Amino acid sequence: MLRYLYADQLDEFPQLRDTMFRDRADQFKTRLNWDVSVDENGFERDEYDDLNPLYVIWETPQGTHSGSMRLLPTSGRCMVNEHFAELMNGDLINSPLIWECTRFCLARHATRLTANALMLAGGEVMVGFGVKQCVGVFDQRMIRIYRMIGAQPKILGQTGEGKDFIGVGTWSFTDELRQRVAKIAGISPLQSRQWFDLAFGPDQRLAQVG
């Protein structure tokens, strides 16, 4: 199932929390060899995890992590502005209607369903919180995943080629895209909406970010 948890709620789900941060270490440090820090618990965490971000997590029936991503409004601190502004010629993105998506992580055991479900969940957040666009930084590997899901970004800037490629892009979410991603994921739009409402309540869908 899909879980929507703020950082200050993670301690209520210790197994889910621990396996998420360890899977992040496995993906970003071990498999991708990124320059990230792993602590004594085997967790990959950074300064943005301390800003109480919203995590979207695909939880297995055993209560462990299968995939996740991290969301922060660009109206506050975010990676795209503090580390990747040069990809956009120094322009900054600062809007409560644009949220940043980072740390898109898939566990080794994750199936294609996991990536599709996370993209669908990103759309639920956009609809539920009145967000118009999501922005993210991605490498060449993720382009294939986005293409598989059927939700490719609008590229704002990029550098490098092949394994050295880094891009910044934005996503919008339409009902047509929602239906397509839900079909690919094998998750009904009704079920997807129920998971969001379980976390925030049905009234949240009427909320608009000011």
Commentary on this structure:
The protein is α+β, with helices and mostly antiparallel strands and 210 residues long. It has one domain (2-202): Aminopeptidase (3-Layer(aba) Sandwich). 35% of the residues lie in helices and 23% in strands. It is built from six helices and seven strands. It has helices at 14-31, 79-83, 112-129, 140-149, 175-185, 189-200; strands at residues 2-6, 54-59, 65-73, 98-106, 133-139, 154-159, 166-171. A seven-stranded mixed beta sheet has the order 1-2-3-4-5-7-6. β6 and β7 (166-171) form a beta hairpin. The longest helix has 18 residues, at 14-31. The protein is globular. The two termini are 30 Å apart.
Tell me the distance between the termini.
Answer: 30 Å
Q: Tell me the number of helical segments per DSSP (H or I, 4 or more residues long).
A: 6
Question: What's the CATH class, please?
Answer: Alpha Beta
Strand content: 15-25%
The parts where pLDDT drops under 50 for at least 5 residues are 206-210
Summarize the structure.
By secondary structure, this protein is α+β, with helices and mostly antiparallel strands. It is built from six helices and seven strands, in the order E-H-E-E-H-E-H-E-H-E-E-H-H.
